[in-house]
Design brief:
The protein is mostly helical. Helix 3 crosses helix 5. The chain contains 5 helices and 4 strands. It has one domain. 38% of the residues lie in helices and 6% in strands. Strand 2 and strand 3 form a beta hairpin. The strands form 2 sheets. It has a two-stranded antiparallel ribbon with strand order 1-4. Strands 2-3 form a two-stranded antiparallel ribbon.
């Protein structure tokens, strides 16, 4: 899976993230983070570590941004058109105690358990990078 995504998307870097990698695990990510911090501390006595919790990240992926990045993929037009159709017209309603809310259109969120969910998130997050020299990023 790693080489598939790497060949499809030029800006999809696997050097700073652990999804779809042969040794991509939480343990590997923690070791990399600790190694990075130790290396930074050898040259600078002050290191700031900022950590983000992306546990709800699937809820905030905007369909328009995902499709914009997907149009840069080297995939056949009919696959891209299928993705556009798949994300078009998503609605949500809530049922509670026998009551059902009205349908609401949603323009963000990917279904985490779906077959396209993880790949859609990886494509969306591929552009996250640091902009200040000397900073590091582990996804």
């Amino acid at each position: 899976m790693h080489s598939l995504f790497a060949s499809l998307l030029p800006f999809l870097a696997f050097t700073d993230q652990f999804a779809f990698c042969p040794c991509g695990s939480t343990t590997a990510a923690l070791i990399t983070i600790l190694h990075t911090i130790i290396n930074l501390l050898t040259t600078n006595p002050f290191v700031i570590v900022i950590a983000f919790d992306f546990s709800k990240v699937f809820d905030i992926v905007r369909h328009s941004m995902l499709l914009h990045k997907c149009c840069q993929l080297d995939i056949p037009d009919h696959i891209y058109n299928w993705l556009v159709e798949y994300f078009h017209g998503h609605v949500h309603c809530t049922r509670y105690h026998g009551q059902t809310s009205a349908l609401r259109h949603i323009s963000a969120s990917i279904i985490q358990g779906s077959s396209i969910g993880l790949a859609a998130y990886v494509v969306t997050a591929a552009g996250l990078c640091f902009i200040t020299p000397g900073n590091s990023l582990c996804k």
